[in-house]
Design a protein that fits this description.
It is built from two helices and 14 strands, in the order ββββββββββββββαα. By secondary structure, it is mostly beta strands. The protein has a domain at 18-137: Trefoil (Acidic Fibroblast Growth Factor, subunit A), CATH 2.80.10. One of its GO terms (molecular function) is protein-macromolecule adaptor activity.
Length: 175
């Protein structure tokens, strides 16, 4: 079953700008390594380097690593490319609070606990459905701040400094 499409009030799919892509049934995440290879791991790094930047266009999404590589389904297999064309965009299909990603060739992004760990499947079964986890640092959703910066040119982060840090800064400015 394809499920409902995830739409916000503006008719756009609402997905954060920086996410970790985790299987809904297997305890693994999809990662793009610095060398551009695609693999899985049972956890993501706390520094945010394993998270993927999302690029939305209508109901399609592209996933880009911190190194600039895009997840690709070119030639019916999962790899990466340095550019974003039709093979690097996936149609988002919402399934309750989770997502399936359909490639240009109609196959779905899929994970397995055996090599190849990331591939494509003809239908959206259990291993083709993913949860998206937003990058949070110090209690701040980094993707939302990036969106706000793009739209308004500024960000406001409440309680970034505690009272002691603020007092120390005020004292040094007064000198």
């Amino acid at each position: 079953a394809r499920g409902d499409r995830a739409m916000s009030r503006r008719g756009q799919i609402a997905i954060d700008r920086i996410v970790a892509l985790r299987s809904s049934v297997l305890p693994i995440y999809i990662l793009i390594r610095p060398d551009g290879s695609v693999t899985t791991a049972d956890e993501v790094s706390e520094d945010g380097n394993d998270f993927l930047t999302t690029r939305m266009s209508g109901d399609q999404i592209a996933f880009q690593s911190i190194g600039g590589d895009y997840l690709s389904a070119e030639g019916g297999k999962v790899s990466t490319r340095r550019y974003c064309s039709a093979n690097e965009r996936f149609t988002v299909e919402k399934q309750e609070t989770q997502y399936a990603f359909r490639s240009r060739c109609g196959m779905y992004l899929s994970v397995s606990d055996r090599a190849p760990f990331v591939g494509l499947a003809p239908t959206a079964g259990d291993t083709e459905v993913f949860q998206l986890f937003s990058l949070m640092m110090c209690g701040v959703n980094v993707g939302q701040q990036l969106d706000l910066l793009d739209r308004t040119g500024q960000v406001v982060i409440d309680n970034l400094l505690d009272g002691d840090q603020l007092a120390s800064m005020k004292a040094s400015l007064a000198q």
